[in-house]
Amino acid sequence: MSTTTSSTAALPFQPSSMSPAQLAAVSFLARYSGATHALYRAHLGRWFAWCETNALDPLVGIQRAHVELYIRDLGDAGLMDSSVNTMMHAVRGYFRFAHIDGTIPADPAVYARLPKVHRDESRTQGLDRLELIRFLQVAQTISVHHGALAYLLGINALRASEAAAVRIEDYTDVLRGHRVLHLVGKGNKPATMPLTVPVLRVLEACRGERTTGPLILRPLSGRPIDRRDVYRMVQRIARSARIPRHISPHSLRHAAITNALDAGVPLRDAQILARHADPRTTEHYDRARGNLDRHGVHFLTAYVAGV
């Protein structure tokens, strides 16, 4: 189903010629920026296109049954349950704020049933303790820039875009005896993280004699890295470290969180490391709950073996 026409129907802002549905879409999307704005705009575009195909106004007169049918059609189109839930974030938010603003008398999406997604564990392929150690060691042998990137991802659990955006000026402060890194994370949320001695050592090696500017550079051109460079650098380190599976920047973030949990870090402290708003998100990373070495069947077998 094409969303080209409907995804642009809400923009640009022309109130005199816009329908209530389009005005509500502009009002909702104005809350967001960057990638989130683009994603929600595309998802609302799909909803607008579906409504146009079915001769419905995207806002006025919509009932819960219509939303339920849309959810079913998303599944019938081949989307996974998790993707359907993601697609509905924008649609549900759209109706919620339209209701709050008094544009519609009731929210038709609030009780619409979404597919149940079971996420007992994160599906990302992370690294265990020995693999993480090898990854960090090998990264430093490639270049100081690869080493700094590996430590920011694998120890401080930065996201790819966050690591690419680190500047030398961001880690010059000392707070309560700790050298700290200031960054702006997901959702434009500011954060301050301590830098341990090993991390600071590789960052300083990467900095060299520079005093300002982006920290991690492309080793050959000397230009600042971007998100795509982060992916390429991580994959090169993984190949050199002979890790026999696909490793992404998120794998390193996953490794930082899960290895912290395996080391005995309390869930609350691991949540702070990960900068998750909800501790349940951090729990998804906890490999220990599915660790075969710790499975209860071993303890039960040992218990009944002496009978």
UniProtKB/TrEMBL annotation:
One of its GO terms (biological process) is DNA recombination. InterPro entries: DNA_brk_join_enz (IPR011010), Integrase-like_cat_sf (IPR013762), Integrase_catalytic (IPR002104), Integrase_recombinase_N (IPR010998), Integrase_SAM-like_N (IPR004107), Tyrosine_recombinase_XerCD (IPR050090). One of its GO terms (molecular function) is DNA binding. Residues 122-298 form the Tyr recombinase domain. SUPFAM superfamilies: DNA breaking-rejoining enzymes. It holds the Pfam family Phage_int_SAM_1. Gene3D superfamilies: 1.10.150.130, Intergrase catalytic core. Keywords: DNA integration, DNA recombination, DNA-binding. This is Integrase. It comes from Ornithinimicrobium avium.
